[in-house]
Amino acid sequence: MPAKTFKASANEFELLFTQEDIDKADVIRTGEGEFNIIRNGRSVNVKLLESDEAGKKLKAEVDGEFYTIVIKDQLDQTLDSMGFNNVAARHVREIKAPMPGLVLEVSVEVGQEVVEGDRILILEAMKMENSICIHANARIKKVLVQKGQPVDKNQVLVELE
Amino acid sequence: MKKILVANRGEIALRIMRTIRKMGIRSVAVYSEADRHSPHVRYADEAVCLGAPPSGQSYLNGDKIIAVCKELGVDGIHPGYGFLSENADFAQKVQDAGITFIGPSPGAMRIMGSKLAAKDSVKKYNVPMVPGIDSAITDVNLAKQIADKIGYPILIKASAGGGGKGMRVVEAPEFMEESMARAISEATSSFGDGSVFIEKYVTSPRHIEVQIIADNYGNVIHGFERECSIQRRHQKVVEESPSAIITPELRKQIGEAAVMVAKSCNYTSMGTVEFLMDDKLNFYFLEMNTRLQVEHPVTEMITGLDLVEWQIRIARGEKLDIKQEDLHIDGHAIELRVYAEDPFTNFTPSIGTLTRYEKPAGEGVRCDDGYEQGMSIPIYYDPMIAKLIVHAPTRIEAIQKMIKAIRDYKIEGVITTLPFGAFVMEHDAFVSGMFDTHFVKNHYTPEKIKDKQKANAEAAALVALKFWQDQQKILSPVQHRTTSWKRRLAH
């Protein structure tokens, strides 16, 4: 029988632990919600700040930085594998704004063939002008922004065919 | 002077107003529609809205600012840094309106504001300079010819620039066209003047600058050097004073050169003379910033001077009663600029709302900021949230104090350069003092920060798992509550 595993995400990190990892972890309680763990020789102080009612979503502070931890036990993992919460990988065919800013110039039009390195547009953010270039050869399907328009981070700028 | 208007926003407006209040003078804030909630607006005795958020319609609207001054009976304008601070035409208009401009004369600003005029002015004083051209250009073909002559890599700089805007390093001829176009366009939109000039790009340079204090009676002294070599995108992130590599003899030389530069244009008020220093400790005059510098606090920490107070005292005609020999370096100071930028994706702006914002405090820890918890970072302006400054008896102690202060600085909702600051403080090159302006390119790997964060995330997750399992063992149905309130586990 495979070892019982626990998945936990902490911010952008996806982590996997066995029951043995948890049992063997050298953790002591040092105060109200405060713990010290020695791991791979490093002494780390962890403060648990809050948790949800089920105790599976917690917020921790380490080294002045905050981590939101979501624990997934065997049942959660089984549900995930059955397709719940499962977002199928999509083939992304669009260029998004890497940062919020103002569109200073749109350098392409619909139907245009672009090659790797071509400039799609110029985005001004925090007083800096940034050339947004394409990293592959493609054809412009749709241009969704225009000159002078403010855009948010990750807003779709152009769609590709 | 009874009432001073601060023509700026954010941390610097607040910092200037603190000194104004200390001196028993009334302060007037100006703000854009995006900054109604800013602390500087609430701190001031009076506040006036200038207009819409874009700088051109608010903080750069000099005529409106002068009109506000007349209406409110303001007798002095402090421009801070950026915005109108180095605009000689504005300074002239202020003077013509019978208001004191708290800064240098328009004439000195004009000379030092144009890098070419500055070089011209300094030439006769035997101050060393970097090879380059004598006139500003906008012609790409001409630029290419000049670059070929000087030899790549070259640096394109806006003639009227500052703060890294309109500045591009070009490594090879094929990048010349696009770089020139971007530099000229940035220069035009930021400074209203698209002319640029070209110079040899010194490899392995350090950026060392000297604080100048000059009164209206020909007395010019310097407040020692600031080491500003840790930069990203040609903009400073970490500054310190004194520099780890400058000997007392070299300090005297570079200080005297800086005083010479100031004297060459009859400079008055606070100013900063910037030098490039190569790996053999040769220094070259770069430019003079005719304003209060962002990083002025490190100088204040080691000299004990309030530079803004002196700026105001000089502006109202007081004589400098400190002599060069009265100034001494007390300990070591380091500043970290806390930007709303993502150090994991090449320092791209990361705007958002400060859902949690707690500042570090303690002896020798100073935090100049212009934000509070719950505020959001507007996209219209520079993304700097705060300047974190520490002061300690030695450089090593200052570094340790900075590491602790970074840890105590709690920011959520916006990604900041704080982890980058910790990376710098812990890096061997920084600790040893052997680094140059290519620190980021040569030494910075976001993966190192990520590895540490991942180890911390694993530690936190294990603690959380253990805690969760322990809770499950002791939980009985009686204790089950159906409230959706979060449980606080610690304070």
Output the helix-strand order of chain A.
EEHEEEEEHEEEEEEEE
Distance between the termini of chain B: 47 Å
What Rg of chain B is obtained from the alpha carbons, in whole angstroms?
24 Å
Structural class of chain A: mainly beta
Question: First CA to last CA of chain A: what distance?
Answer: 48 Å
Q: Name the quaternary structure.
A: heterodimer
What does the average pLDDT of chain B come to?
92
Spatial order of strands in the largest sheet of chain A: 2-1-7-6-5-4-3
**Spatial order of the strands forming the largest sheet of chain B:** 13-12-9-10-11-14-19-18
Question: What would your notes on this structure say?
Answer:
The complex is a heterodimer of chains A (161) and B (491). Chain A is mainly beta and 161 residues long. In chain A, 9% of the residues lie in helices and 53% in strands. Chain A has helices at residues 19-24, 74-81; strands spanning 5-10, 13-18, 26-31, 34-39, 42-51, 57-62, 65-72, 94-96, 101-106, 113-114, 119-125, 128-133, 138-143, 150-151, 156-160. Chain A has a 7-stranded antiparallel sheet. Chain A has a 4-stranded antiparallel sheet with strand order 8-15-13-10, with no helix packed on it. Chain A has a 4-stranded antiparallel sheet with strand order 12-11-9-14, with no helix packed on it. In chain A, strand 5 and strand 6 (57-62) form a beta hairpin. Chain B is globular. Helix content of chain B is 36%, strand content 23%. In chain B, helix 5 crosses helix 6 and helix 7 packs across helix 8 (176-191). Chain B has an 8-stranded antiparallel sheet, sandwiched between helices. In chain B, strands 3-2-1-4-5 form a 5-stranded parallel sheet. In chain B, strands 7-6-8 form a 3-stranded antiparallel sheet, with helices on one face. Chain B contains 16 helices and 21 strands. Chain B is α+β, with helices and mostly antiparallel strands and 491 residues long. Chain B starts with a strand and ends with a strand. In chain B, strand 9 (206-214) and strand 10 (220-232) form a beta hairpin. Chains A and B meet through strand 1, strand 2, strand 4, strand 5 and strand 6 of A and helix 8, strand 16, helix 12, helix 16 and strand 21 of B. Strand 5 (42-51) of chain A pairs antiparallel with strand 21 (487-488) of chain B, so a sheet runs across the interface.
